[in-house]
Structure prediction request, 302 residues.
Amino acid sequence: MAATSAISTLDLSLLPPPEVVEQLDYEAILAEMLADLRARDPVFDALVESDPVYKILEVAAYRELLIRADFNDGCRSLLLAYATGAALDHIGSRKGVVRLTLDPGDAEAVPPVPPTYESDEDFRRRIQLAPEGFTTAGSEGSYIFHGLGASADVKDIQAVSPDPGEVTVYVLGQEGDGTADGALLDTVEAALTAENVRPLTDSVTVLSADVTGYTIEAQLTIYPGPDAEVVRLAALEAVTAYAFSVHRLEYDVRRSGLFGALHRAGLVQNVALTEPAADLIAGAGEAYYPTSITVTVVGSDV
Prediction:
């Protein structure tokens, strides 16, 4: 996987929680209240849990816990890494970025069909890239930002420059395995060749991603005790999430990542991964798509 612009590779989930976020610990809050009360009046030194005053403090501590939780949610809603829904829309508006509409729905239908909008994850990525769109100097990030904003059917964009003045933009679509059709390529090309986006010295070529399908086949040995089907389904969900998280341009599919996802299901003693037999390394304009994922439980061991 090749390096891309720093702003496009910053993983917001790795940032530490901001200091304004309060720790939610009911027992600690209750202990602080008890200590405060005893410091104010030593007569309460012998309080026991059955005492009405103790019960009042328990109620107060729980309500303070709820207030802290609301405060945390309010603080997080102001941060790009944590905001969701309408709060994320407001952050986008400050950057001049609007959530894309996937399906306009049908207000005349009975019952009405509501619109379907771009996911928080995809919208957050475009907001993060917004500063790259402020320039018309033809930066890599600028092409990525405007390409992603061209259509809600775009899942990923990669811009490479094989020669000075030559820019090749690869498009990975949202539908199917990600191969972009002609209509989507035309839409992206129109967005990237607008006068306020493309430098006059750049010649832009827009191509579909070269998508290669692959299969995942894993056999699990689990620890005795848990229901085998519950563990299998958890492992299947985890490995599917990993496979689609790396369904991006020039993202490798690593066996270590597959092993890690399968073990995250918990209570998995061993994983035998028969497919893919080796790491799948993607080059420029390439992506890998999981055509089938099979996870089976073959036994238990300690």
Summary: The radius of gyration is 26 Å. Residues 100 and 118 are 5 Å apart (CA to CA). The mean pLDDT is 84. The chain has nine helices and eight strands.
